[in-house]
């Protein structure tokens, strides 16, 4: 009976010191991070088809194709596990790789401006629509992650919850920096409805 009372007291103590709130917000950040990864993966999966479609019309743009392929390889080389958000250095490598992918993808899409036939190709237009939707979903997922990490980080820094976090080894999580957020907040331009320059010969 005494052991049961001690266990009940311990559980009540954990509840009052923020342990359950840490668990809740920690799980929320993991869930939000998974959605970020899902959307980035969706974008990465679109890229080979997009590159091949552009290649069919713009064979001389080899340098751009190489840059996109290399950027996609760098993204794929990073093991984006849930633990990554607890490692600021690994999180930064992830951000840098995704920023590189965004930049390379933007250069690929700029190529389409010079190829009216490409812009009128149904397959390309379908991929363009999918990419635009994915970029929007990335922005939404990233915003949810930022908010969930903010809630978690504020919680584990507050007294007395910070003592509980310290005892159980919970630390603040990495988040997108202001500079990174400015750079990646604007998705690549995918509107090719404007009139294009004459096609290259």
CATH arch. level architecture of one domain: Up-down Bundle
CATH topology (level 3) name of one domain: de novo design (two linked rop proteins)
Tally of alpha and pi helices: 8
Strand portion, in percent?
under 5%
Task: Describe what you observe in this structure.
It is built from eight helices and no strands. It is mainly α. The chain has a domain at 36-144 and 178-184: LemA-like domain (de novo design (two linked rop proteins), Up-down Bundle), CATH 1.20.1440. α2 runs antiparallel to α3, α2 (19-57) runs parallel beside α4 (88-111) and α2 runs antiparallel to α6. The model is unreliable at 4-12 and 180-201 (pLDDT under 50).
């Amino acid at each position: 009976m005494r052991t049961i009372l001690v266990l009940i007291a311990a559980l009540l103590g954990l509840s009052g010191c923020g342990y359950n709130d840490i668990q809740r917000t920690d799980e929320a950040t993991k869930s939000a991070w998974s959605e970020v990864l899902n959307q980035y993966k969706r974008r990465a999966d679109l890229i080979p088809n997009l590159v091949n479609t552009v290649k069919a019309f713009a064979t001389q743009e080899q340098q751009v194709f190489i840059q996109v392929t290399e950027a996609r390889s760098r993204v794929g080389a990073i093991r984006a596990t849930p633990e990554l958000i607890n490692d600021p250095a690994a999180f930064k490598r992830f951000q840098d790789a995704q920023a590189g992918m965004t930049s390379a993808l933007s250069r690929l899409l700029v190529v389409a401006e010079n190829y009216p036939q490409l812009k009128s190709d149904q397959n390309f237009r379908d991929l363009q629509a999918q990419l635009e939707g994915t970029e929007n979903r990335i922005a939404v997922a990233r915003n949810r992650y930022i908010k969930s990490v903010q809630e978690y980080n504020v919680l584990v820094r507050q007294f007395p919850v910070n003592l509980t976090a310290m005892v159980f080894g919970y630390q603040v999580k990495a988040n997108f920096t202001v500079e990174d957020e400015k750079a990646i907040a604007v998705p690549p331009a995918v509107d090719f409805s404007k009139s294009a320059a004459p096609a290259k010969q």
